[in-house]
Amino acid sequence: MASSEQLDNPILDSSIQTEVNVEPTQWAVKHDCCCCGPMVEVMVPNKKSHLFLRHWEFQPAFPILVTCLTLFCLIDYFVTAAPYQYKIIQIIAPFPIFIFLGLFMWSYFGAVCMDPGYLPFNWIQTQKFYYTWQEQLSGIAVTQEQVNFAKTPKNRPPHCSFSTSAGRYVLRADHICGWIANWVGKRNHKQFMLMNLYGGLYAGCLFAFQFGVKDLHQMFDREMSILIPQVLGLALDGAFMLVLICMFFQTLSELAINRTKIQKMKNMEGGKSYSCLESMQEVCGTGNKCLWCCPTPAFDETLVMTADMPQAKAEESD
């Protein structure tokens, strides 16, 4: 949390030069979709152009894979396990399963689609902490000149890391996650954490309720057409449950000492002046603590950043 002195005093040195000659990046709207936002093409000199949905670089492979695996495990449960269960379990089980499924998908696509806290490579010209997607696209570094400008220490925003893969700074950059095809940063860290929690609980419910059949000793004495998908579903449910729950508690342990994964990889310490509560507020917001369990956005356009925490350079880890 920022002290009154930190809020009153400017973080940046007033002597920093803001007049630069680096040109903004060019982009054009390719398709306009009312539900997902416009499909935008960002021009990259001498290379293939990149496609974006608003601020998110269009990389749908892993989100589609995660959705398919999630639905497969759900359908597999209701086909191979539910018909053979006790009546009471058939009635009760769908409630926690669908509740955790809804929370998981909400958290997952929040982590995928939300702005993790991107700042343009030429942030020093405006020095804001919230940008529209149009401003973000104009601030993507696609040339070596722009990248070099962003890596200049005096141009770096406080508590930010520059990502060469994203072409932008990331506020409180934690790590880049292939499963969400996005960076985990200050603005979507809460959704990433809840995704692990609710995904683990969803998989755990599917795994546990598999054993609520009437004849448990004959559970694996079924036709191969039922047995094979049942065993596959059990393996996926168990693996996802263990991995996601472990990732959730690992995230909590790092938050307790206010350290990002980038800082951990570089053997750096977190912000020593932060308590565990203040560290949670860094990614979950300072509002009602009951909302910490809800995958709603933790921050609006108003965002206070402090300079008392060590910065880690992300460009070496992309």
TrEMBL record:
InterPro entries hit by this protein: Palmitoyltrfase_DHHC, PFA4/ZDH16/20/ERF2-like
What name goes with this protein?
Palmitoyltransferase
The record's Gene Ontology cellular component field reads: endoplasmic reticulum; Golgi apparatus; membrane
Domain Palmitoyltransferase DHHC: from-to ranges: 154-267
Sorted alphabetically, the keyword list is: Acyltransferase, Membrane, Transferase, Transmembrane, Transmembrane helix
What is the scientific name of the source organism?
A: Tritrichomonas foetus
The record describes its membrane topology as:
Multi-pass membrane protein
Q: Which reaction does it catalyse?
A: L-cysteinyl-[protein] + hexadecanoyl-CoA = S-hexadecanoyl-L-cysteinyl-[protein] + CoA
Q: What class of enzyme is it?
A: transferase
This entry's Gene Ontology molecular function terms read: protein-cysteine S-palmitoyltransferase activity
Q: What is known of its domains?
A: The DHHC domain is required for palmitoyltransferase activity.
Q: Which PROSITE patterns does the record cross-reference, listed alphabetically?
A: DHHC
Q: Which residues cross the membrane?
A: 61-82, 88-109, 192-211, 231-257
The organism's superkingdom is given as: Eukaryota
Asked whether the UniProt record includes Acyltransferase among its keywords, one would answer: yes
Q: What is its EC number?
A: 2.3.1.225
Q: Which family does it belong to?
A: Belongs to the DHHC palmitoyltransferase family.
Tell where it localizes. Answer: Membrane
Single GO biological process annotation from the record: protein targeting to membrane
